[in-house]
């Protein structure tokens, strides 16, 4: 993904495994409760985006909302910064990809539908588990699993291409759900699915370890050891190309299961290509002559 745009820093969702927790330390806050309670936002984010899109040197490239924290977390309902961004992107006919685990995205169906008709949007819905009990302990303030599944279905019905992210897969917590999850979302209209393996970088290693020892004491040792098995004996792996997939026996088993699940349930579907030409034509009307 060439560019990531984040209207918010910090996230109210409170997902215990979130790799973005560490970025809060750059602002002088903790990766723990501060990350969930002290939410920073860019009030003029839409204007900054428009200034960039109006720049003569800008060429259309995919912009991801959001690579760090969820652009549809609860504060978005009040501030509507993500909606403002989408309106700018629609105005300039510029492609965008969105990833979220919040059903609030359905508020913006009017814009997303218009973007989709121009092949300008992909949406990824993050669904870590089909089990609500697992969702509650891992992602305490996110949309429920039924709401997320309904979001996949609704977006698909409106012609908006949906990818489902099983992110992260955590051994001994949700790694057994791969087939059922891919099957379910394919039935609801998703055209693609992907995953990442959990990696506990920086302060998240200690935060997650303390959490799993308290929340799942009977399985804590197994979970931690299996995570380490995926990252050369560590809870984190920073190697490019390996950090999001891992390696070793368990990571290979997960990769095989996911590959088989996609072959069985999503063999003949994929995200359509985004159209990068519309922005250039709008920006340079003379291109329409060719």
Could you walk me through the main structural features you see in this protein, from its secondary elements to its overall organization?
This protein has helices at 33-37, 45-54, 76-79, 81-91, 109-117, 132-138, 145-157, 178-187, 204-215, 220-229, 249-265, 277-283; strands at residues 3-4, 8-9, 40-41, 63-65, 96-100, 121-126, 162-169, 192-197. With 290 residues, the protein is of the alpha/beta class. Strand 5, helix 5 and strand 6 form a beta-alpha-beta unit. The protein is globular. It starts with a strand and ends in a 7-residue tail after the last helix. The mean pLDDT is 94.
- Which residues form runs of ≥5 with pLDDT under 50? none
What's the number of helices? 12
Total beta-strand segments: 8
Q: Sheet bearing the most strands, described?
A: 6 strands, parallel
Beta content comes to 5-15%
Order of helices and strands: EEHEHEHHEHEHHEHEHHHH
Radius of gyration of CA atoms, rounded to a whole number:
19 Å
**Amino- and carboxy-terminal Cα gap:** 29 Å
- Structural class, from secondary structure content? alpha/beta
Arithmetic mean pLDDT: 94
Give the overall shape: globular
Main-sheet strand order equals 1-4-5-6-7-8
* Helix content estimate: 25-40%
């Amino acid at each position: 993904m060439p560019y990531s745009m984040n209207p918010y820093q910090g996230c109210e969702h409170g997902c215990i495994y979130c790799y973005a927790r560490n970025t809060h330390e750059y602002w002088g806050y903790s990766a723990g409760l501060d990350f969930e309670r002290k939410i920073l936002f860019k009030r003029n984010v839409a204007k900054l985006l428009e200034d960039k899109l109006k720049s003569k040197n800008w060429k259309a490239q995919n912009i991801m909302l959001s690579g760090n924290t969820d652009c549809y977390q609860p504060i978005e309902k009040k501030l509507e910064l993500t909606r403002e961004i989408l309106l700018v992107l629609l105005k300039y006919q510029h492609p965008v990809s969105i990833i979220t685990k919040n059903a609030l995205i359905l508020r913006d169906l009017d814009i997303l539908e218009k973007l989709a008709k121009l092949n300008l949007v992909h949406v990824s819905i993050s669904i870590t588990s089909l089990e609500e009990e697992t969702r509650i302990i891992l992602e305490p303030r996110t949309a429920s699993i039924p709401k997320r599944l309904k979001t996949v279905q609704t977006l698909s019905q409106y012609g908006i291409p949906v990818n489902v992210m099983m992110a992260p897969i955590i051994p001994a917590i949700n790694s057994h759900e791969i087939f059922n999850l891919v099957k379910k979302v394919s039935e609801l209209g998703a055209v693609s699915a992907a995953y990442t393996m959990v990696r506990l970088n920086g302060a998240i290693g200690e935060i997650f370890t303390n959490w799993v020892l308290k929340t799942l004491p009977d399985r804590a040792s197994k979970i931690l050891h299996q995570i380490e098995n995926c990252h050369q004996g560590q809870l984190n792996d920073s190697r490019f190309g390996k950090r999001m997939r891992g390696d070793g026996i368990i990571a290979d088993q997960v990769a095989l299961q996911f590959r088989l699940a996609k072959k069985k349930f999503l063999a003949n579907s994929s995200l359509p290509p985004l159209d990068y030409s519309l922005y250039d034509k709008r920006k340079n009307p003379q291109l329409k002559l060719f």
